[in-house]
Amino acid sequence: MKEGQSKGLFDSDDEIAWCPGCGNFAILTAIKTALLELNKRPEEILMVSGIGQAAKLPHYIRANVFNGLHGRALPPAVAAKIVNPELTVIVHSGDGDTYGEGGNHFIHNIRRNVDIAHFVHDNQIYALTKGQASPTTDLGQVTGIQTKGNLDQPLNPLMLALAAGASFVARGFTGRPEHLVNLMKEAISHPGYALIDILQPCVSFNKVNTHGWYADRVYELPEEYETGNLSRALEKALEWGEKIPVGIFYRVEKPTFSDRLSWLTDHPPLVDRVWNPQDAERFLTELE
Ligand SMILES: Cc1ncc(C[n+]2csc(CCOP(=O)(O)OP(=O)(O)O)c2C)c(N)n1
What we know:
By secondary structure, the protein is α/β, with parallel strands linked by helices. Helices cover 33% and strands 16% of the residues.
């Protein structure tokens, strides 16, 4: 820990509105621990989210916060990182927010490879709106709305991220908190877009994928697993059912969005060049 850091450095005074037993608590503890262990300070962090139970997390941590529209967490997050590269930008969003309403933003921001960490709280359900099927709900699963069973097959977020060209793709589980902290530290330190799909129970609305259901199936990728092999990562990402792997499936270094734009990296950060509307106008004229 840096001088002046304390265990409660990232604690916020906001009252937490999650159900007792919600997997989000473990994610909140894990992210605070990861930030402390990385010697980060609240003013260096920007937490971005959309709408949902997962998206409430930035309010429960002491840091800069942008809480926007459902499915739209990624655009402001990548914009903030591009104009202010000094910031550590972390997105917290749900499986519905990211893979459903935000599906296009997910695919196309992966292609940009902006240096942000994206933590998807995947409870395989729309929790805030009381339990409709989300893009990761299993086929045939009965919910309060899909009373005869979910008719849509689930998408595989890791396959999708790998296919879109993500440079860091991982899966965690709230029942393995130390493992999750390590994944978060790796994702935050990765130079480029880093996804962790975090399996978490929703105690109120998903009665199938409970803590015990995940705990019986989850296993950690072995140390000898090679993270730089895309075919291997795709093969592992297909594994889902009796056994569910967690860990870093794929990690490679690629140029980031800012690396590809020399006028961004060769000049002082945009945030230092644009302070008021007149500056912005001058800046836009410079670009013409
Ligand atoms: C454009 C839009 N569509 C739908 C909604 C309603 N809505 C709010 S949160 C939510 C589901 C959130 O589910 P998820 O992202 O999986 O997060 P969770 O609550 O499970 O953490 C929905 C459908 C909305 N606010 N805006």
